[in-house]
Amino acid sequence: MREPVGLRRQRILAAVRSRGAVRVSDLAAELAVSVVTVRRDVEELAREGKLRRGHGVARPVLPETAPAAEPAPRAADGGPVAVVVPERHAYLYEALHGARTALEEAGIRIALHIAPTVPGAERPLVERALADGARGLLIAPRWRAPATEEADYAWLSRLEVPAVLMERRPRRGSALHTVDTVCTDHWYGVHLAVEHLTELGHRRIVLAARDDSPTARAVRAAFTDIAADHPDVDKWAVVLSSPDATPEPAAESAAEPIALHTLMAESGATAAVLHGDVDALMLVQSLRDHGVRVPEDCSVVAYDDVVAALGSTPLTAVSPPKAEVGRAAAELLLRRLDPRDPEGARAPVRRVELLPTLKVRGSTAPLAP
User: Fold this and answer.
1) Distance in angstroms (rounded) separating the CA atoms of residues 200 and 203
2) Number of CB atoms found within 10 A of residue 157's CB
3) Measured distance CA(188)–CA(197) in Å, rounded
4) What is the rounded distance in angstroms from the CA atom of residue 168 to the CA atom of residue 139?
5) Sign of the C-alpha dihedral computed for residues 94, 96, 99 and 105 taken in this order
6) pLDDT for position 3
7) Mind listing the pLDDT tens digit for each residue in 292-327?
8) What is the pLDDT of residues 108-124, one digit of tens each?
9) pLDDT tens for residues 222-253?
10) Is the torsion defined by CA of 205, 209, 214, 215 positive or negative?
11) Averaged pLDDT, 330-352
C-alpha cells in the first residue's frame, strides 16, 4: 500500500524543519519513492509557502533578512558543544538534528562523537572532547543494562562543564538526579497506544518490545502498569521483540526466535504494540507469513515512528518528538552557557518531559465482530 500523498509531504516538511537543507535524492531514498515524486511534492510545498526550493535541495522557510538587533553572542568565545550518541541509532540521530539546529542558530559548533556498542564507550569520548576544549555536553548513553547505567553515574556527575542528558532518566536519588534531562514521556506514549486499541474494541493486547535500552525498559514498565490497571484490557502479555533484544544477546543465542503468531493464537490477542520500528516491521512480516493479516486479523501499533510509515502497510505508530527533544536539550545547555545570563549557570536543574503523539495509519482497525 502506497503512503498517502499528504502524509508523505508531512514527512518531507518534518525532515526539512529538523535538518535544514535536505537533498531531494536523499528524501526519495528515505521515503522509498522516485526522485520525480519528491520533486513534485517539494514544488507543491514551495507553492504553498511551506518550504523553499533549491537546485536539488529542499530548504526550510527563513526570514528574508536576519534581525539586526543584538550580535550573536553566545558563540564567539569558547569551544564547541560535544554531542555523544550511540552508533546506528536512527531515533537519537533525529534528536541530534534538532540539537544541531538550536546550536547553529546560536553560532556554536557541534563536535559529534559516535559511541560504539561496547559498555563504557562514552567515557573516553567525553574525556577526549573535554581535552579538545568542548564547553558543554549533550549525551545519550546507550545504557544497554541497568548495571552499565549505574557505572556511568559517578563520572558523569563530576563533569566540569554543563551537560544535558537526552532521552535518559537517571535513577531517582542517584548522582545524576541533579543533572538537566530532556526525555519523551513514554508512559504517555504507551497510554496513547493502549487507548487507541481499546477504543477500537481490542481487549487482549500483546507488547513485543526490546529490553536493551532505557527507552525499551520504560516502554515495558509503562505497558505493564497501564494494561494491568486498564478496565478494558482483559488479557495482556509482554515478550521480547527478537532473541537478541536483551543487554546480553549472547546469553539468549540459544533461544528460539519469537513466535508472535503462536502467542497471539494461544492468548486470543487481537492487537499488539511493537517496539521499535524495525522489529515491528519484521514482526508484521512474520505474522503475514503465518496467515495473520494486518489489520484484518490483528491491529498493530509501532513505537518510535522512525520508519514505521514505510511498511507495505504503513504502521500506526507512537511518535516521540525526537527532534524537539534534541532542540530542548540544546536550549537548556545554551542557557547554562550564555554569558549574558549570569543566572543561567545557577538556574534550577530541570527534568523536562515532552509528550509524544499517535500517528494513525493503516495497521489498526476496529475489532471484527
Assistant:
1) 9
2) 15
3) 14
4) 9
5) negative
6) 64
7) 999 999 999 999 998 899 988 999 999 999 999 999
8) 999 999 998 888 899 99
9) 999 999 999 999 999 999 887 777 886 544 44
10) negative
11) 87
SS (H, E, C) the chain: CCCCHHHHHHHHHHHHHHHCCEEHHHHHHHHCCCHHHHHHHHHHHHHCCCEEECCCEEEECCCCCCCCCCCCCCCCCCCCEEEEEECCCHHHHHHHHHHHHHHHHCCCCEEEEEECCCCCCHHHHHHHHHHCCCCEEEECCCCCCHHHHHHHHHHHHCCCCCEEEECCCCCCCCCCCCCEEEEECHHHHHHHHHHHHHHCCCCEEEEEECCCCHHHHHHHHHHHHHHHHCCCCCEEEEEECCCCCCCCHHHHCCCCCCCHHHHHHHHCCCEEEEECHHHHHHHHHHHHHCCCCCCCCCEEEEECCCCHHHCCCCCEEEECCHHHHHHHHHHHHHHHHCCCCCCHHHCCCCEEEECCEEECCCCCCCCCC
Nearest Cα to Cα of residue 313 among 301, 327, 329: 301
Q: Which phi and psi angles does 22 have, rounded to 5°?
A: -130, 135
User: Which residue bears the cell 527533544?
Assistant: 325
Residue in 203, 197, 231 with CA at minimum distance from that of residue 302: 197
For residue 333, CA distances in Å to 71, 82, 301, 338 come to 19, 11, 34, 9
Query: Under a CB-based contact definition with an 8 Å cutoff, are residues 226 and 190 in contact?
Result: yes
**Cβ-based neighbours of 105, under 8 Å, separated by 6 or more:** none
pLDDT of residue 92: 80
CB 166 within 8 Å of CB 325? yes
Q: Which of 315, 339, 364, 308 is nearest to 90 (CA)?
A: 308
Copy the grid coordinates of residue 46. 514551495
List the grid coordinates of 229.
490497571
